[in-house]
Amino acid sequence: MPSILADVFCILDIETSCLEEKNKRDHFTQLVLACLYLVSDTVLKERLDPETLESLGLIKQSQQFNQKSVKIKTKLFYKQQKFNLLREENEGYAKLIAELGQDLSGNITSDLILENIKSLIGCFNLDPNRVLDIILEVYECRPEYDDFFVPLIESYMYMCEPQTLCHILGFKFKFYQDPSGETPSSLYRVAAVLLQHNLIDLEDLYVHLLPGDNAIIEEHKREIVEAKQIVRKLTMVVLSSEKTEEKEKEKEKEEEKTEKPPDNQKLGLLEALLKIGDWHHAQSIMDQMPPFYSTSHKPIAIALCQLVHVTIEPLYRRVGVPKGAKGSPVSSLPNKRAPKQAESFEELRKEVFNMLCYLGPHLSHDPILFAKVVRLGKAFMKEFQSDGSKQEDKEKMETLFSCLLSITDQVLLPSLSLMDCNACMSEELWGMFKTFPYQYRYRLYGQWKNETYNSHPLLVKVKAQTIDRAKYIMKRLTKENVKPSGRQIGKLSHSNPTILFDYILSQIQKYDNLITPVVDSLKYLTSLNYDVLAYCIIEALANPEKERMKHDDTTISSWLQSLASFCGAIFRKYPIELAGLLQYVANQLKAGKSFDLLILKEVVQKMAGIEITEEMTMEQLEAMTGGEQLKAEGGYFGQIRNTKKSSQRLKDALLDHDLALPLCLLMAQQRNGVVFQEGGEKHLKLVGKLYDQCHDTLVQFGGFLASNLSTEDYIKRVPSIDVLCNEFHTPHDAAFFLSRPMYAHHISSKYDELKKAEKGNKQQHKVHKYITSCELVMAPVHEAVISLHLPKVWDDISPQFYATFWSLTMYDLAVPHSSYDREVNKLKVQMKAIDDNQEMPPNKKKKEKERCTALQDKLLEEEKKQLEHVQRVLQRLKLEKDNWLLAKSTKNETITKFLQLCIFPRCIFSAIDAVYCAHFVELVHQQKTPNFSTLLCYDRVFSDIIYTVASCTENEASRYGRFLCCMLETVTRWHSDRVIYEKECGNYPGFLTILRATGFDGGNKADQLDYENFRHVVHKWHYKLTKASVHCLETGEYTHIRNILIVLTKILPWYPKVLNLGQALERRVHKICQEEKEKRPDLYALAMGYSGQLKSRKPFMIPENEFHHKDPPARNAVPATVQNGPGGAGMPTSLAINTVRLEEGTTEETDKLKEKSQGVVKVINKTVNATPKVTTSNGNSASNSKIIKEKDDKEKSGKEKDKEKKDKTPAATPEMKALGKDGKDKPKEERANKDEKAREIKEKTPKSDKEKEKVKKEEKASKEEKSKMVVTIIESKSTAEKEREKEPSRERDLAKEMKSKENAKGGEKVPVAGSLKSPVPRSETSESEREQKRRKVDTHSSPSHSSTVKGMAVLPKVPLVSENYSSSRIISVHFLQDNLNELKDSSAKHYINHTTPTLSKSKEREVEKKDLDKSRERSREREKKDEKDRKDRKRDHSNSDREVPQDSTKRRKEENGTTGSSKHSKSESPSDSPRLNEKEKEKNKSKSSGKDKGDSIKAEKMEKSSSGSKKESRHDKEKTEKKEKRDSTGGKEEKKHHKSSDKHR
Questions:
Q1: What is the CA radius of gyration of the chain?
Q2: What integer best gives the mean pLDDT of the chain?
Q3: Quick one: which H or E segment has residue 110?
Q4: What CA–CA distance (Å, rounded) separates 752 from 32?
Q5: Chain segment 637-678, per-residue pLDDT in tens
Q6: pLDDT digits (tens, 9 = 90+) for 388-418
Q7: Coil, strand, or helix at residue 126?
Q8: Which of 69, 786, 1248, 1513 suits 17 as a labelling partner, its CA being 20 to 30 A distant?
Q9: What's the rounded Cα separation, in Å, for the pair 1182 and 25?
Q10: Is 160 exposed, middle or buried (0-12, 13-18, 19+ CB in 10 A)?
Q11: Rounded Cα distance, 1451 and 1297, in Å
């Protein structure tokens, strides 16, 4: 009842508290109070609200009541008994620890222990979280019981919340995060194991670890900055050593101050994960850090390396262990969750390669693992390179290979950089690298050098330290300390070769004297380092920032030359692979760049010992024409002893990479590329250098292939000649050069086959077999060459001749006996020296002697073999020769084709080819080859060398000079002795001067060129060479001057032989020396060199009259001049040597030259216009035999008249006299008067007396005039001008005198006695006077003027003899004019072909001559007196005054029409008459200015000097003969001369 009532009150309480009416509430309160005796206050306190109880007065404060009830409830319902601290419940916890720490080896399981733990928790109210903590603690202490604790914790976790374990671990890690705290490794391990078993998440635990990721990134950045600062400090130049010391001290202090950084718990955990093999979680941690940051800590790197060791173990044991090595096996991890061990390369790729990538450069911490990885790589490459696997496997292997390359790039090479000079690792790595193609290797080196070092702070530091050390070593490297420095370089190179070599190469490029010591010091490198060096060289060569030319744009940069030289030396000395370098050169050539051929040239020269130099002596060249042994002994500058291995290496590199032929073809094509593509913007000098370099390298490289490739290799690689030329566009000379060894190999192998087949031992049989084998081999070549040229070409020369010329070499034509003897004698001397050497040990003596004896035997055997070979070749040529030259057009055309297609291209190809060409011409002559005119051939070679010289490069000029030298040697041999000439040329078809159309070359002696005329011809050739040389020297063009000086230096042994020509050259070269000293030092050096050599040759030069008799026998002169007609319709019976075509060519050439010389040529034209008429008109009347006789007469008279004219021209200075044979050398002058008297006494016949008188008179007159002129010029310019006006009148007087005499004789030509060639010495002019004149002449800076020489250069190949007397231009011109007139007169007359005029005529002429001589003598005496008076005045003039007269004298000479034998003008044709010429002269005269005169005077002077000072040495007999000849034809010419000289004025 009370309880129910209490419930009712409770409901009412709730209801009334909700009502708004207060009285109802009050009623309720009263009701309850009234019923208190029914319901106890205890029941009410249970049921009613505290506020109601307070209002009823049952409790004091409701709030306090509430609090008290909550406390009581908590205490009753919520408070559990749990002990967290060990001291609170030490018994329970002690039992727990005892339970966990007991011996677990028995049958105790984690489940059993778990049950016990639960009981302990229940019994002792232990805190479950603390129990978990204690389990972890015990696990830390008993790490070996993974299998027990891990399941225990796993089971226990089912009773906890998932996060509890992670929080407890986090709490443990936090405990050690004090600056001084160090996290124990056992904790890391427990955390790692729990992570591995997925009992906690890495993300949950990671946040509890320090430091934060941001701090790690900051630290990484700081390391990079520090590394860069270190680099900067190392590269900085510090001037004060004290400052550096202070800085070092500061650094040390800073290092001491810096505290040890707080423990990096993330890295500790990572290390633990790696140690237990949890690669998955370890990778996740690494990914959250900067690359290689984690592995840059050594413990982590070592842990990862250990993991890799374990993973690769089975595969390494299977394929990687070297034969015979035991190795120490690595036990696998007990952990089943560790990565699976690799059994195959595919598994290796999946697991291990990834680990290695995270390791990066820090594989360096474990060299053993490094070696294992490399060996696995080697094993893989072996498998990769063995064919026969399926397509799928191949694809897998390709993927694996690319992965291996990546590992090499990212791990192996950077690790090698961080290893401390470990040579074994370098060699180990090379074992794998050498299986890669060089392209891959070089790519790897490139990455290593240019990118790897920037990827990591450690590598940045290492790079800087390496450079610093390299600088230190290079500063101290000398020839003396090569060994110690080399060791240091080797040590440094084992780890960082790219950086070291880069620096060394940069030093070599600056200082080429470092090359030798550096090459010697590199002997301590590993194979890998040598390969890296090859790459570094190529990279240095390909550097796009470097200019390949010097600033003057004319020479190749010295850095490139130094590198090339270094290349050659280093590749020869050490076994470095060449393929990359050779391919680089080939690629550059493909790109049209030929600079880098310099490298190939050096490499071939050093490795194969094959030199290409233009400085070879003739002895060396001769040795080069022998066999291989002789070449090696006597052909090169350096001894080629030890090139066998290096040349074999070079050969293998070329063959393995198929570069032999491509390089040859590219070089052959690039020669023209240099000129037409590469050379556009470049300086001409540089283009020439590049062309030479390209050509020389081709010759050198081709020579190397020919001597080193086996026959099969060579034939397999070189295509046939037509394919080379037509498909590969190889120039013909280069194509034959490449094919030549192939033909020789072919023929010798065929010959050997035939010999074996038939055992016939007779010499004839052998020769027959040889010829058969030649035919077999060469027949296809004959067919192939037809396509190389137009069909027209084969009208003149046969394909057989063409192929024979191009396929033979000097080895085939002659045996260099003297070279063989020289080398054998050297060996004998050597053996004697060995015998005499007392100090040499006996066994060494024996060895050396054996070596010398063996060499001697080899040489003798080789000589014998070559002799037999040459005899066979000559037999073959003898049989072939009749089909060689077909001459379907003209012989002239045949020679043109021969020179154009054979001689000229080949003579500038190489020095030996130059000698070969000269030899071949001689051989063709000696074989008496039909249709071959030796005379024409030599004439064409010597006549116009200007164009060939001007178009040569420097080295081509040198080779062309050699060719001319050999040609001149032959000519000089024939010229030297009549017996030799008669034996070798007398009856040979090559020396026929009348070329029959019938093709009959036979023995009409009258058609042969006799010895004396040949000597004239040789003089003509010498004169032509002088003319061309002076022209080139006059041009001022760099190429012309350089080339002609080179050519002149080469032909010095045989030219100049004639004194006056030598003097003319000497003066011109001297002028070049003066002009070029400041401007072009290279030309100055060349000119000085030549000048010195020329002076030393001077004693061997001879006067002109000793070189050839100036008046040739007239009969034999005829054929040479007659045959010069055009080969046209008017000449059915005789072919002209100089065809119309040739003449047209020369007139065109003259036109071109005219443009250059402008006004000056006008003067020349006046005197010369007649010349070509002689050449051509002769032919028109060639059918008349009478003309021949007439020409004889004219030639004789022409020469005499020329002489007369020279004497008579008032302007003739002493120099003219000298040239005109009037003058003598100074020492001879004193004898002049005595000689004259003696001659007068001796020559008693009236005829000769009269002649002499005339001559004397003439000479006196001319000398007086000349001396007067010189004096007046010196006095003043105005007097010079007056003289000019006077001269014509003097000349006119003489001319009138002549005319009157001629008229008196009824039109017969009266000879003038005082001709230039007169034997009478210079009359009474005193010696001192003459000397003075000569001095003035000598002060002239140039002997001749370019314009006149330009004229000369283009003279057509005109009368072989008439040109020959043109030792002075005057002679030839007047002689030609005379010939013309006489030709004209005689065109209707018929003379028999005889050579001397009738006696009666000659007597009449003699009488006239006597009269003339008397009048001349008188005038001379007068002039002498005048001269003596003026002599004193002349001496007083200063040098500066002298120079003015020199110019004016030149002008005077020029005016006087003495600029003879220059070019013909356009308008001339075979039928031109002399009259036409006269008109032209008139026109030209009006045009010519004073300047023209001055210019031509210079030319005149040169020519005069060239023929001077030789007369006195002649015998009296000769003199009388010449006078007789002059008598016969002199008068008419003299008259003509006066006319022409008048016109000139």
A1: 55
A2: 74
A3: helix 110-124
A4: 152
A5: 655 566 788 888 899 999 988 898 899 999 988 888 888 876
A6: 667 778 888 899 999 999 999 999 999 999 9
A7: strand
A8: 69
A9: 174
A10: middle
A11: 26
